[in-house]
Specification:
Largest sheet: none
Helix content: over 70%
Structural class: mainly alpha
CATH superfamily: Ferritin, core subunit, four-helix bundle
CATH class: Mainly Alpha
Number of helices: 9
Radius of gyration: 17 Å
Oligomer: single chain
Mean pLDDT: 88
Distance between the termini: 34 Å
């Protein structure tokens, strides 16, 4: 259980860092404020997850892998900033929808729903996606943005699989298999395959090449 909340906390911290760090790429004040509003939403996740952590050691076990995502796949323009968060939210939402039936109440937000954590349906999410759609509608060569999306999902799924392989307790909790290491990893790989399939459809719907 502790590993789960360590992953949640680390992911929120580094997602917030990626959003705040993108300020120089925002073309005007309104867009910078949009980034600030999005960064604020991660505080809600951290407010809840911190109560499940006993110390820094739990975070340091998972942070090297999670922090590497932004290092290996940096956002290089404003559209990629928007794409990163949009795609990350989609990946997380798909993953959670597949594993949530196995999660006990101690691994769920106190509200009972992961929706608010993902910003689904919020004003910030709507404004963010409208901005992204407007950027994508501008006639341009988006081949580099398609490559960015492919690299991002590849790194995210690689990190998720490595976390599951290293932390057997996390793998068992997420899959509900509990039949041994190989069975749990097989289950998590099936989840990842479905997440990737949904991601590819999402990217194609945006007009990018999966």
């Amino acid at each position: 259980m502790t590993t789960f909340w360590a992953v949640v906390s680390s992911a929120a911290l580094h997602s917030m860092s990626a959003v705040v760090g993108a300020m120089p790429l925002a073309p005007d004040v309104a867009r910078r404020l949009l980034l600030a509003d999005r960064a604020g939403e991660f505080c809600d996740i951290l407010d809840e997850s911190r109560g499940h952590l006993d110390g820094l050691g739990e975070l340091t076990e998972v942070e090297p892998l999670i922090s590497g995502i932004a290092t290996y796949v940096p956002s290089r323009n404003w559209l990629q900033v928007l794409l990163r968060d949009h795609l990350m939210v989609g990946l997380c939402a798909d993953f959670i929808s597949l594993v949530e039936p196995q999660l006990g109440p101690e691994l769920k937000p106190s509200s009972g729903s992961f929706g608010p954590w993902l910003g689904l349906g919020t004003g910030v999410r709507v404004r963010w996606d409208e901005e992204m759609t407007a950027e994508l509608s501008v006639p341009s060569d988006h081949s580099s943005d398609s490559a960015f999306a492919r690299k991002l999902v590849g790194e995210v799924l690689s990190v998720a699989q490595r976390l599951a392989a290293v932390h057997q307790d996390l793998c068992s909790v997420l899959t509900g298999a509990g039949d041994g290491e190989l069975d749990d990893l097989s289950e998590i790989n099936e989840v990842m395959a479905e997440v990737l399939s949904r991601h590819d459809r999402r990217v194609a719907d945006l007009g990018l090449e999966p």
